Amino acid sequence: MITRSSIRHLRIPFSLFLMPVFFFALSLTPNLNGERLLLVFLALHLFLYPSSNGYNSYFDRDEESIGGLKFPPKVTPDLYWLSQTFFFIALVLGAWISWGFASMLAVYGLVSMAYSHPSIRLKKFPWTSWVIAGLFQGYFTFGMAYAGLSDLGWEVIFKSHVVIPGMLTSLMLWGNYPLTQVYQHREDARRGDQTLSRTLGIKGTFAFSSIIFGLTGAAFVWFFLDRGQESIIWVYLGAMAPILLFFLIWFGFVQSNPEKYASYSWAMGMNAISALTLNAFFLYYFLENTQIMQVFGY
User: Fold this and answer.
1) Would you say 33 and 150 are in contact if contact means Cβ atoms under 8 Å apart?
2) Is 266 in contact with 289 (CB distance < 8 Å)?
3) Which residues 6+ apart lie within 8 Å of 158 measured at CB?
4) Rounded mean pLDDT of the chain?
5) What contacts 243, CB < 8 A, 6 or more positions away?
6) Are 79 and 57 in contact (CB under 8 A)?
7) What is the Cα Rg of the chain in Å?
8) HSE-up of residue 161 (Cα within 13 Å, Cβ side)
9) Least confident of 23-32, 252-261, 282-291
10) Could you report the per-residue pLDDT of 47-97, keeping only the tens digit for each?
11) Are 225 and 213 in contact (CB under 8 A)?
12) Is 10 helix (H, G, I), strand (E, B) or coil?
């Protein structure tokens, strides 16, 4: 029997926060197909990510707030099998496109399982988990989405036209990733998980993220300049403005009272505004690139 608590632990709406990677891959894919687009989107956002959420919740058994759940319900045994069922469905949808794409989904799923599984538990290693989480949720997911959307195999994720934008998405996630841990210090300490945010401290987390955000902005500006898309830079900066403003206001409050303002509500607010503005930007970028491809007959 599937319990309501297990459905909640899948945190399907939380997939919104990872959609910018998909939309960025979509915006650069020259070989679009409506059926593949739907299958890739469903495989990633409706099944693979929720499977990962549920699996990690099953082993974490958090008692305090987690991403997407301010008051997480008690974990029940069916959550494990529900997460595995969602993983299987994701693989089936992936195989509908190609075995190569399905194998990429499988690799992502196994790495995400290693994040919380007690026999490996990457979450205990601050820098290792930071690198791997950002690399797989960013670059690897970008390449995986690009391959699925274009009906290509593993070879494409090593091509420069995928590696460069893929690494840009990893930069975005490397900046935001420690901020998602900043309100979980007590819970992580209880379990013995030495996350990157615990290692850096609350104020150190914000300082570190601000540096990565700066590098990310500069890297995206270079990317658009290299593609001869100077006009897109201003749209990108406009999309980043509310994110930066929210971050600076949050950082200011944290400076005055770290324990009070390094909270779930502020972290989810940061995630929400980032997801909404970046999703809107990359959808706009997709439409712009689609028009360019049509003009040149691609």
Assistant:
1) no
2) no
3) none
4) 93
5) 270, 273, 274, 277, 278
6) yes
7) 19
8) 10
9) 282-291
10) 999 999 999 999 988 888 888 888 899 999 999 999 999 999 999 999 999
11) no
12) helix
